[in-house]
Task: structure prediction
Amino acid sequence: MIILFGMPVVQVLLFGFAITTDIKDAQIAILDKSNDYMTHEITNKLLSSGYFILGANLDKDDQIDKAFKKGNIREVIIFEKNFARNIVTNKNASVQIIADASDPNMANLLFNYTQSILMDYQRQLYKDKKFPMQIQTETRMLYNPELKSVFMFVPGTITILLMLISAMMTSISIAKEKEMGTMEVLLVSPLKPFQIVVGKVIPYVILSCVNAFVILMISFFVLGMPVQGSLLFLLLETILFIFMSLSLGIFISTVSQTQQIAMMLSMFVLMLPTILLSGFIFPIENMPLPLQYFSMIMPSRWFIIIIKGIMLKGSTIFFLWKETLILVGLTLFFITMSVKKFKVRLA
Amino acid sequence: MRTILYIIQKEFRQLKRNRQMLPIIFIMPMVQLLVLSFAATFEIKNTNLYIVDNDHSQLSRELTGKFRGSPFYTITGYTDDYKTAQQALELRKASQILIIPSKFERDLHEQDKAKVQVVTDAINGSAAALTSAYALSIIHDFNIRLLVETFPAIDLKDPIDVRYSFWYNPKLDYKTFMVPGILVLLVTLIGLFLSGMNVVREKEIGTIEQINVTPIHKYEFIAGKLIPFWIIALFELAFGLILAKLIFNIPIVGSIGLIFGVASVYLIAIMGLGLFISTLADTQQQSMFLSWFFMVIFILMSGLFTPIDSMPGWAKTINIINPIHYFIPVMRNVMLKGSTFADISKYFWALVCYGFISISLAVWRYRKTS
Result:
């Protein structure tokens, strides 16, 4: 019982703080062949940016491969010999950035940050030089000015937790009754199948609503997720999603003979695709086309869009009617399928 | 010894009889591997751009043209009203807006400087950082070309010459990063869930009582229960590696023997954990819930999708009891960089310790008399 309430809380907190694609404290190695005042200034600039920490100082080129192989160093920066002298006399000196691209995203981001710090240093050196016709670009980040990756993950976390409790637990619970044999007893009673299912499902509805509320509270107060749009609208959409998940859970239970199967189905067909294909972590726009089409039948995908829209952009129903309609449609679909498949006799 | 063999036989027989489970165990993981490897990428293939041009000059058209010509951009709208563009952002028809103010060309010629604005939908923080950088570099290139055309004698070379190279994955192919991780994921699912659920299932069905009244030892029973899934998981790993090489062309630079060696130890550690969890639960529902709880947390914190370096200190401390976080670097470093045993030894010994502790805990908690 404690688990059912505590787990969502723990997960939201964990994902809010620990799961991030932001770059912080990435270990780099410096191979400084000059060791002059300029290379030291640049190194200082890099290390005080908050993005990098010094993992190792190398002296030879062949140490680079070893440093990467150990697994801690993400980037190596090589300053050529006589760096400062070359800058002053020839106005040309080279810096080599070697990034460990086994994680391409990290490598790309680290490289971009390194490069922009280098360019910044260069601008400082030549700040008195005036160029004509300068285009100054001002950048603005909308909806998430601090680029917190929390904003990306919390909507997905909410979706997954709701789906877990509503769909997975419901399907397992009903499958368990079937497996235990107590379902037969319920079916021969004067209760209609519809009443049995509703009775089984209501505790999970209440549980889900409570959990949803708690998660939203934590997101707002502890993680700093804003709710730009209407709170009432958010709650209504959440309840819609809970009903959708419940109907999905019921449907899964009608096709599973045992709990194990219900669980495996929920997990492989529901959970993993939801985590990976719904836009929770990986943006859907970047996926190959067939997968983008496939993700359209994932209800979680639409709900994540709705949550992000309401919480981060302040969207109203005017902007989100399409997604809401899809959720309603899916709910009706699953309910109809469940009713059809629910046989009054278990044979 | 013979007893263990008999239990193993029984497990395999039970598995064969469970018709519905067989495709789930064998086919699902492979499907997952294929589908998810293609899906899991942070690579930004295309950005939808909305142009707000208040200048309508030769220069503003040229600047727009540069974006139009870029393979990374698709221009989805062209307006002189900012509100239209903002609505497009909200409806997700575009994820970036370029705003060229009026008098852009005139200011550039008469005052030697002019401003433009790049507004980016930053819900996905790291993607926004990258697309902002792309936009800036296109504008910068445009600026340079303009200067060179207007003042042919000007010296514009950057004094600091930045050269870069990406090692181990020069094309920055995201699949190369994800596939070893997904292999770990698959192996973990089988090890953690199936083995744990198995014992609890016996408990629920009641056949466990019958086994308990036989003279079988605790460790014989547990070994017999775990070994079949250990074999299945290793087999799946092998099959997964073959798929990785054939379909995704993932390099396998390091020693395959090393991969399987560490995988074997890892599986024991994971199974011990799964088994221990199942001894804490009375019903399959509870066991599954607990396993799920731990699995999701461990997977997301293991460095599979997001970098460990960026996590706060307390999260890194929690990772000490996370077995996945030891295995992922091993898979990645050995496969992609060719790390040797010496390089990954600290992870290996951590897994050995973990396995020892988790199995001991599981055996200790498992009581033959309930």
About this structure: The mean pLDDT of chain A is 82. The CA atoms of residues 32 and 79 of chain A lie 5 Å apart. Chain A is about 65% helix and 10% strand. Chain A has two domains: 24-125, 150-341.
